[in-house]
Target: DNA phosphorothioation-associated protein 4
Amino acid sequence: MSASKIRIAKDKADLVKSLLIAKETTGPFQTYADIIVFAAALGAKRKKRVPLEEISKRDPLPIGIEIFVSRGYDVAIKLLAIAETKDVNIISPNDENAESQRIEIFEEYANGGLEILADELRGSVDYSERLLLMLISERDKQNRAEGEFDLTRFLY
Model:
């Protein structure tokens, strides 16, 4: 992968910054790359792919692809691209067009995931707690058997 960068939409920049661990935030993520990969996975899971309009030119700046590679996230980028295009040639290391296509797919799923997170986290004081509740709820949805009477639906 060349010197490509993963961009973040300007309207999501404040959310991304608030998800980072810092003294003044309740964010659960250590790096911007962690946030973007989580958002892309969420966007893919919920089938929400949103094109980027205006790009953030301040903090957070576009993130070099080498950061994602060093953390092992390049696999997620490639898997999302294969799942979206149904074409294994999209992961060709020699095709710059394929690389830009992979990055675009990844950025758009991340942008969609950030929109979902913005809705889910609205009004929340502790993002870590709310994200944990989201993950538990998602796991419980998968574990419920079809047609099974579930009393937990009365708890919400």
In short: The chain is about 50% helix and 5% strand. The beta strands are 5-6, 63-64.
